[in-house]
Amino acid sequence: MSWAAHEFENYFIQKHAGVKISFLGLAIGTLSPDLFTKSFVYRSDDPAMFHRGWPGVGFSHSLIFGVAFALLVLWATRSRSWSLGILIGQWAHVFTDVADTAGVMPFFPFSTEPVTISMWRHAASEGPYGDAAAYYSSLGGMWDLFWLVLLILVARRTLTADYFRTTILPADPRAWAWLHRRTRLGERGLLTLYRGLCFYGAGRMVSWFLYARFGARTPFQPLWNGPSYLTSYNDLSDAGALEVVWRTTLGGILFAGFLWMIWRLIGARLWRRGVDPPLVERNRTFF
């Protein structure tokens, strides 16, 4: 899934998570699987295997990566809202990346079997421009549009100044106050930064779609497992359906057991010593 869709989903998750989470932590968590690896993907001899598989950095697209990242943040900062944001954002990235043919390894290291629904063809082997053109010639581009429409229809309030003031700031007052001091931006400036992730995603979506139509001139084929003009695309598994189900189920059971053990040994203690964002009156100024 493209960064545009990952950026749109942050606002939807923030509104419907049901818990107080840091939007900044959520954004970092959502981008974390690609943040430190994406720039190296297209330099690899096998970009898809390097990015999503093993051996490679496919572990960044596993659920255990989000757990480790969240626990590290909780240990270092004691912030429950940041650790939850990191965890929820990273897990959202993992679950939404099952759509392309490369898939992800959600239960690594207990299973290295990629999980995919093969909604569109993964084309990292085509290079960055070929990959983008293929994505925006398939249901990938429609998936971006879906998240943008979902944001507009059910989560557009998250882009308002009132929501920023009453929900986003109170969930993470220290981080926003630090940004205020470092950048000398007032509330309007910080609101622009907050909204910027959405507008940046929309700009990426529109520009890459136009590139695919008028630059690369690839045919628009929003069909399942498209675009068909890609005769060679990335599929990291040669296992049959039953084998995939068995490996994934076993990996999921082992991961659940490991998660329970980590919570008992480390997580619960870190959570108890963690702190929630300080209570802030609705009309109090932050700066």
CA-CA gap between termini: 37 Å
Q: Structural class, judged by helices and strands?
A: mainly alpha
Q: Helical content, roughly?
A: 55-70%
Radius of gyration: 20 Å
Largest sheet: none
- Number of separate structural domains: 1
Which geometry do the CA atoms define? globular
Low-confidence stretches: none
The SSE string, one letter per element, is HHHHHHHHHHHH
According to DSSP, the number of beta strands is: 0
Number of helices: 12
Strand percentage lies at: under 5%
Average pLDDT number = 92
Verbal overview:
With 287 residues, this protein is mainly α. The protein has helices at 3-16, 23-35, 38-41, 47-52, 63-77, 80-96, 127-135, 139-154, 161-171, 173-183, 187-215, 241-273. It has one domain. The two termini are 37 Å apart.
Write the layout of secondary structure elements.
Layout: H1 3-16, H2 23-35, H3 38-41, H4 47-52, H5 63-77, H6 80-96, H7 127-135, H8 139-154, H9 161-171, H10 173-183, H11 187-215, H12 241-273
Helix pairs in contact: 1-2, 1-6, 1-8, 1-11, 2-6, 5-6, 5-12
Describe the structure concisely:
By secondary structure, this protein is mainly alpha-helical.
Which terms would index this structure?
287 residues; mainly alpha
